[in-house]
Structures are given as C-alpha cells and as structure tokens.
Design goal:
Helix content of chain B: 55-70%
Number of domains of chain B: 2
Order of helices and strands of chain A: HHHHHEEEEEEEEEEEEEEEEEEHEHEHEE
Radius of gyration of chain B: 20 Å
Organism (chain B): Spirosoma terrae
Strand content of chain B: under 5%
Structural class of chain A: alpha+beta
Helix content of chain A: 10-25%
CATH topology of the largest domain in chain B: Arc Repressor Mutant, subunit A
CATH topology of the largest domain in chain A: Jelly Rolls
GO molecular function (chain B): DNA binding; sigma factor activity
Largest sheet of chain A: 13 strands, mixed
Keywords (chain B): Sigma factor, Transcription, Transcription regulation
Distance between the termini of chain B: 51 Å
GO biological process, one term (chain B): DNA-templated transcription initiation
Number of helices of chain B: 9
Largest interface: A-B, 60 and 58 residues
Shape of chain A: elongated
Shape of chain B: globular
Pfam families (chain B): Sigma70_r2, Sigma70_r4_2
Oligomer: heterodimer
C-alpha cells in the first residue's frame, strides 16, 4: 500500500496516487478495507474522494471487458504468426487459392501441405481458416519452389525454406508482404497501390514489375534483383535513402559489414533460381510446350487435354505479368477457361481446329 | 514473478518471440482500451494490435532499446490506428476522434460512494470534459488513467512537451472549477441549474 495517502488533499493528488488508482481499477477487497478505514479517519475529505472517483471513472470512460484468458489467447495468436526460422519446423503451409473466372474472384480457401514427402509431389489437405486475422502465412518446406498466389493476383515463387506473410484483404492502401528467405515476385500493376516487400534488412517498393528478393537469416548477404520494370529499395543501413534499381540491376547487402553494392546483374551469377533470367516469349508456340515450360518454372501441375490442345498455339511475351495472368492471357487467346483446384491448375478447353 | 518489461524487451530484440508474446499479453487490455477510444471497431483495434506486434517482430533488428515499453506500444498503436483510418480515407486531417462515453451502471457501492452522488458527479464532469478538444481529453486519459509521464505522452501523441502540459493545465482548470463549485456549493444542484 502506498502510504502517502494521508497527505491527499486535492483531486489531483488522488489521481496521481498509485494506491488510489489501483483501488479504482481493480477494486480488491483488501483495498476496499483500506479505503473504508481511510474515509473513517479522513471524513473531511470524503467529498474530494468522491470527486476523484468520479473524475477517474470519466477519464477511464467505457471500460472494456476482456478476461486474462482472452488476452492470453490473443497474444498466443499473435506469436503463432511470427515468422521464425530457428523455431521447430511446423509442417503447416498456408496456401491461398483463388479463382479468377470472368473477373470474379472467388472465396479464399487455405490449404495445408504435408512435408513428409520432401522433394516429391506434396500431399495437399485442407486446413481451417483463421477467422481472427486477415494475415496469412505461407511456409515452403517442400524442397522445391512453390508458387503463391496473392489476393491482388500477383504471384510469388517462394523458394524452399522460405516464408511469406501477406494480407488476405485487398482493401488496404498498400500491398505489403513480409518475406524471410527467397522469393521471385511478379506484381500486378496497380499504380495507386504500392507493393512492398519487407525483409529484416531490405525493403523493396514497386508499383508493378518482376523481381527477386533473397534474405535468409543464416546468410551473410541479402539482395534484390530486377527482371522487369524498376523498383526502389531501402536498406537497414540507410533507411532514409532509397536506391532505384532498373532491369538487370541488383542490390546486394553484406549483412556482416553493412556494405551496400549496386551492380549490373550478370547471368552467370544466377545459380539460385533461373526464373529471373527465363524468357516467356512465344511465337506460334504449341500450347503443350508453353504449359510444359510454365510447369517447370512454377512447379504447379497444369491439367489439360494434350490431344485437344496440341493444335493450339500462342504468340506474345508474358515476361512481366504474374503467373495466373500468364495463364489467363493464354486461355483468352485459345478461347478456354481455367480454375485452380487443390494446388493444381485445370484448363477447360474445346481445343483448336 | 514475471520478468519486468525491459528484460522482456531485451530478450525480444535478441530473437525471443515468446518474450514479445508476454508483452503482448501484458498490454493487450490496455492497448485495446486505448485503441477503442479512437472510435474504431473492436476488430480494427485487434488487427492494429496484431499488426503492431508482428511488425515489431519483423523489424526486431532495427528496433532500439526503450526507456518505457508501455509508452512505446501506445505510440505504435496510435500510429497503426491512424494508418488504418487514412487507408479508409475516413478523415483527411491529423485529428483523431476520442470516445468519452461512460460505462453504464457502475456499481457505486463497491467504490464506497452513493449511487446518486456518483451519477451526479460523473455527468457533471463528463459534460465539462466534453467541451474539451479530443487531444486534450486524450492527454488527460494518458496522464491520469494510464499514468504516463508528460514526456511519454508527448512521444505517444507526437507533440512537444509544452503542448502536453498546456493540454493538461486546461483540462484540469476546467475540472477544478467544477470541484470548487462542488466544494463551496453544498447547493451544488442549484449551481448546475444556474450555469448549465
């Protein structure tokens, strides 16, 4: 018990008194006994006491009801979503699935991927959707890159051992994703909504383009590489000074020496992932050939009828559009439709003659 | 005994996510109470609190030590609520709303005060405070409900210390008049009729 309470002589004194504050907030029986005794001794200060109580309650305003248990639960939910590599690997892979048919985006469904069969075709099962939060986390432990489709139609080719967190809602002012590890981003063009990739050391901001970000906890350098368009990068070393990168440029940050290096990207440098240098340019190319290349690059199975599509061809370049946009454009050209089901792409077509 | 804030903060900055979780648990109620004052829904406040902690985690390498974790969290929450409101384009100015509504049916007996007296006092004080700008009411809340120092309030509200002092002075002088009326009155209800 704070024992300066005998000197309390104004409302302000009460409001600043720790014992009084605790009594009004918590209303413990022990405090009640104390203040009852206090009022008996200081009967002349009863009015000030009453005013102090009333003032405190007014300043407090609407009291919120939240049990310790709920607070604990809320905190646990938050911890569950913290991306961490040193923690034991959780075999959970959130996976956003959306369908765009006739420009209608359908319901989001989340998937859980079993990691027992590393490197092989992963088994996909349904997981419960978390209603409490609008953020989704995807962790790739399959051993092969995994294409992640974002709600704004952008796509990310997430390398194995990497995690991505993004907002399921599309009504945000900015499109923000958090990355631990490596990802190749193909971003839907939306000039009014910047797309921002956060890693612990580098922040990359774009409006619509394709680029690769790599930042693993256990590696001594992090980088951003641009395939198409331009991006601006902020590093932890100089958080106020953005660095602009254009096509075929890269920014490398040595996390040990905090040295930032902007350089031209040499093709020989690309052992980690080839998609950044891969060209998607087609000239009367048969559809099965194109689908074959897309399957190899994005590691997503494409189900279609070989026989009926072998006479269909596509001409054009699909370098700076997201994965599903590539598919949509091809389907548009060959008068077909598509849907994403169980981590597979299914093409519906009558074929070409 | 649970570890004090600054120890948890230190562990969190060294990569202990459970430490940050402990802080989230410790301050969840206070943050929610504060956030709801800005006239946003509970789910918005919950989202903002979650976002603030996830960002703290994500940016742990860039986060500094702090003299008071509590005021740091309050400052971040205020920032996130502002961002949310801006994204909703609900207001263009820097001004935040401040909810001054009272809890219904306060059990006065448990606070050693008569129901009638308490109702009378709270309504009078409330009407006095209602005439204050939202920022002055917010400063009052942070000072006397959350017990933050002038310097901490200045940081939370992103204004200078002098402004905070002025806000509090103004708010208190309003209240003081009311207290005096009550003290000298004894004919308190009469005064009410005359002045209001």
């Amino acid at each position: 018990m704070d024992n300066h309470s005998e000197t309390l002589s104004s409302v302000e004194d009460f409001l600043k008194n720790e014992a009084f504050r605790r009594w009004v907030t918590e209303r413990q029986p022990a405090d009640r006994a104390y203040w009852q005794a206090w009022l008996a001794v200081n009967s002349d200060k009863k009015e000030i006491y009453e005013q102090a109580i009333a003032t405190f309650l007014v300043v407090e305003g609407n009291k919120i009801e939240l049990t310790d248990h709920t607070a604990k639960q809320k905190a646990e939910q938050i911890v569950d979503q913290m991306v961490d590599f040193s923690a034991p690997v959780r075999p959970l892979l959130g996976w956003a699935k959306w369908m765009a048919a006739a420009a209608i985006i359908s319901v989001l469904v989340w998937w859980r991927m079993d990691t027992d069969q590393v490197g092989s075709q992963a088994r996909v099962t349904r997981a419960t959707e978390r209603k409490e939060t609008s953020w989704k986390q995807v962790k790739n432990t399959t051993g092969i890159p995994l294409v992640v489709l974002l709600p704004d139609s952008s796509s990310v080719l997430l390398s194995s051992g990497s995690q991505l967190r993004f907002n399921k809602q599309t009504n945000q002012a900015q499109r923000e994703v958090y990355l631990d590890g490596e990802g190749f981003f193909e971003v839907t063009k939306k000039p009014d909504k910047p797309f921002i990739v956060y890693t612990p050391t580098l922040t990359t901001k774009v409006l619509g383009t394709s680029f690769q970000v790599r930042s693993f906890d256990n590696e001594t350098s992090a980088y951003v590489r641009v395939k198409t368009g331009k991006v601006s990068v902020l590093s932890a070393v100089s958080p106020k000074k953005p660095i602009l990168l254009r096509v075929n440029e890269q920014l490398r940050l040595d996390t040990k020496t905090d040295k930032v290096l902007k350089q031209s990207r040499s093709v020989a440098d690309e052992q980690s992932s080839s998609i950044i240098s891969e060209q998607f340019v087609f000239n009367y190319t048969p559809i099965p050939v194109i689908f074959g290349q897309l399957e190899d690059s994005y590691h997503m199975p494409i189900i279609y009828d070989q026989q009926s599509l072998k006479k269909c061809t596509f001409t054009g370049q699909l370098n700076d559009v997201p994965f599903l946009e590539k598919i949509r454009l091809i389907c548009l050209a060959i008068d077909s439709t598509f849907e994403v089901v169980d981590n597979q792409l299914i093409i519906h077509s009558h074929g070409c003659s | 005994m649970t570890p004090p804030d600054h120890i948890l903060w230190q562990s969190y900055r060294q990569g202990d996510k459970q430490a940050l979780g402990r802080l989230a648990e410790r301050y969840y109620r206070a943050l929610r109470h504060y956030g709801l004052k800005f006239m946003v829904t509970e789910s918005v406040v919950d989202d903002c609190i979650q976002e603030l902690f996830l960002q703290l985690w994500q940016n742990r390498l860039q986060i500094n030590d702090t003299s008071s974790v509590k005021h740091y969290l309050f400052k971040s929450l205020r920032h996130h609520v502002l961002l949310h409101l801006r994204s909703q384009k609900r207001f263009l100015v820097e001004e935040l709303d401040w909810d001054s509504s009272l809890t219904e049916g306060i059990d006065s007996e448990s606070l050693l005060i008569e129901q009638e007296t308490l109702t009378l006092l709270t309504t009078t004080i409330q009407s006095q405070l209602a005439s204050l700008p939202t920022r002055e009411r917010e400063a009052l809340y942070l000072r006397y409900y959350e017990n933050l120092s002038i310097g901490e309030i200045a940081e939370v509200m992103n204004i200078n210390r002098q402004s905070v002092s002025n806000f509090l002075q103004k708010a208190l002088s309003k209240l003081r008049n009311q207290w005096l009326v009550h003290l000298f009155g004894g004919i308190w209800i009469l005064c009410q009729k005359n002045f209001l």
